Amino acid sequence: MSHGSTARHEVLSVVFRVSPPAPDAPAELCVLLWQRALAPDRGAWALPGGTLGDDENLPDSARRQLAEKVDVREVRHLEQLSVFAEPGRVPGLRTIASTFLGLVPLVADPVLPVDTRWHPVSALPRTAFDHGTMVSHARTRLVAKLSYTNIAFALAPDEFTLSTLRDIYCAALGYQVDTTNLQRVLTRRGVIASTGRTAPPGPAGGRPATLYRFADARLRVTDEFAALKPPG
Amino acid sequence: MSHGSTARHEVLSVVFRVSPPAPDAPAELCVLLWQRALAPDRGAWALPGGTLGDDENLPDSARRQLAEKVDVREVRHLEQLSVFAEPGRVPGLRTIASTFLGLVPLVADPVLPVDTRWHPVSALPRTAFDHGTMVSHARTRLVAKLSYTNIAFALAPDEFTLSTLRDIYCAALGYQVDTTNLQRVLTRRGVIASTGRTAPPGPAGGRPATLYRFADARLRVTDEFAALKPPG
């Protein structure tokens, strides 16, 4: 085994957004992909990103490269995920990829370049290299973090009804959750709070729904063991 | 800014162990470091690791390089942590570091090379490059994971009294926790279970203490929001 040689380093971002529900389709978790126009893997869909610049750190590089595909002001949360370093994961020079998880709120609908689209995670087109694995890995991390952090703040509008929040959780988790349970757990743990306002009634009328907001707009663990809380 | 150049990639492991309490010293969280005999940063203490091999993936590289410093069979848990990629973080060729978190149980006391020692995290010697930051980052992650996973399984002996378990949590967290609360929370959540056996009485006599064990010897999130549990 030889040691000490160098590799290319790339930064790739898995950016998720829940698409709003339509009359004929439920809300869905979607990922931002662009279609490769050149070899290798021409026609396959790839994650936004590229080679780390000589004078860049990883988050700066992720934001710079994302900016070519999407308005980064719409990316509410961006965190380093993992490293993919299998030899031969892409053709040619050895390339090590650092992945980031990015989240865009449901209401945001940033203008995209012509080669770029939101694809439902449940029905991905042909993906380039190991990018499909990266999407699965990021989705698994998102699902785990939904269970012990407030990370859904970055997928939700600033204010939302419980019905919208349930749509977001169901889409992100990939299975049904009960609105009443969701409200009870997230309120008790201080993750969401009522704004005291109500949403305008929909076309069907009915009782106006309370608007909620996330208590924090930064990631935090919401569910520490009480016995392990630091003193003070 | 130039793009497309290459970098060296290294893999570094932050391996923690709780030292057993002694008559004159409490249990302490310690980290495995070796002292650099050569420039750069001669005499400073460094994390075990080195350059990623051409045909290696990251976990294989971490285990291979750890094996030079410590019996890797004693490393009960090893997981990828983060990437450190600031330009200029080490002198010379740009070097990107992937860090791993490794945990060794309290009872294990592996033979170490002469240049290698366990250092209390609360009183580190002069550390090389950005390795001190990596230790802090790893400790923060360990503390966070203690609050929502069963990760303490990898720091504990196979069977332990509640008093030993409290020593481990206090050392790893860096503050006091109450034995009764710890037992109540970890038992209720199915993290630990009684073995039905008791420890031999100590020199002071007294009632024999119940021996507990961790229910799982693999990392899992122990505290999902009940409302978000997948169906079935």
UniProtKB/TrEMBL annotation, chains A, B:
Keywords: Hydrolase. The keyword Ribonucleoprotein does not apply. GO terms for molecular function: hydrolase activity. InterPro entries: NUDIX_hydrolase-like_dom_sf (IPR015797), NUDIX_hydrolase_dom (IPR000086), WH-like_DNA-bd_sf (IPR036388), WH_DNA-bd_sf (IPR036390), WHD_NrtR (IPR054105). The keyword Hydrolase applies. Gene3D superfamilies: Nucleoside Triphosphate Pyrophosphohydrolase (3.90.79.10), Winged helix-like DNA-binding domain superfamily/Winged helix DNA-binding domain (1.10.10.10). Residues 7-142 form the Nudix hydrolase domain. This is NUDIX hydrolase.
